[in-house]
Amino acid sequence: MNMREIDITRGIVENHIESLYRALESDVVIVGGGPSGLVAGGYLAQKGFNITILEKRLSPGGGIWGGGMGYKYVIIQEEAKGVLDDFGIPCRPYKDNYFCVDSINFASGLIFEATKRGVNIFNLTECEDLLVRDGRVTGVVVNSSLTQLAHLPVDPITFEAKAVVDATGHDHDVVRTFSNKNDVKLNTPTGKPMGERSMFAETAEQAVVTNTKEVYPGLFVCGMSTAAVYGGFRMGPIFGGMLLSGKKLAGLLEECCSR
Ligand code: 48H
């Protein structure tokens, strides 16, 4: 075999550019590759939508990998088991209404299934701002996380989308930045992000699903960022709410993108 380094490089560059082209006009850009974003993306890609996920870290998976305090299992309540099944993730029953999931299996399984269904994930890629036209979010402003880490003065590029999702977890980075930079009224009781509250698992798990919604025309929230945006409680290392939030979001976006 005549192995040439330049062919290896061409293979990487050509394929990356092709992925990038596909992302430029996405149906949905999901910011954050944690459980809620991966589940939403996986269901939508299965229906044929062009889905891009931006993840600022090297590895997608968000808060899954660490289990609870670094102990590697997380808990799922019975109502969310169907989502695990849909993504082919194994679990074992625990007490009457719970299932235990190995966090390594959980994170890698969601990532693998989402990408198999066609979700276009960009790691080391950060959303730093939004595109807004006539009172509607129309896309994202994107930069390399490495540029951000090194505090280099490098301008970003942009992706257009029919809908953008803040799936950035506790940070609610997208909604927070959007609200701070613009004189906008969000679809929250105060018109602003309301801040996350202390731990109360049962209430938190219900609220995370209820508050999965459009927070501004074209901008949706799911997962833990709903708690920060709508003043919800936190729930600790139980992840069913994240899965059900992602599934609900997929339903909302399917409707929005088919209009
Ligand atoms: C690109 C970004 C940006 C940005 C952040 O935190 P996550 O796992 O998010 P969720 O909501 O799917 O899951 C929350 C869950 O992991 C959790 O934290 C729970 C259940 N906590 C309960 C408790 O009481 O503590 O993932 C968000 C992802 C991360 O991977 C970030 O790196 C990424 O978003 N991210 N990516 N551009 N601007 N900001």
Average of per-residue pLDDT values? 98
Oligomer class? single chain
C-alpha termini separation: 52 Å
- Helical content (DSSP H or I, runs of 4+): 25-40%
Tell me the count of domains. Answer: 1
| CATH class division | Alpha Beta
- Give me the CATH architecture, please: 3-Layer(bba) Sandwich
Q: What composes the largest sheet?
A: 8 strands, mixed
Bound molecules: ligand 48H
| Count of separate DSSP helical elements | 9
Structure description:
The structure is a single chain. The protein is an alpha/beta fold and 259 residues long. The protein has one domain (24-67, 115-257): FAD/NAD(P)-binding domain (3-Layer(bba) Sandwich), CATH 3.50.50.60. The protein has nine helices and eleven strands. The chain has helices at 5-24, 35-46, 81-86, 103-116, 145-149, 173-181, 201-210, 225-230, 240-258, and strands at 25-31, 51-54, 73-77, 92-94, 98-102, 120-122, 125-133, 136-144, 157-166, 213-216, 219-221. The strands form two sheets. Strands 1, 2, 6, 7, 8, 9, 10 and 11 form an eight-stranded mixed sheet that branches. It has a three-stranded antiparallel sheet with strand order 3-5-4. The chain binds ligand 48H. Ligand 48H binds at residues 31-37, 54-57, 62-64, 126-127, 167-171, 173, 199, 223-225, 234-236, 239, 242.
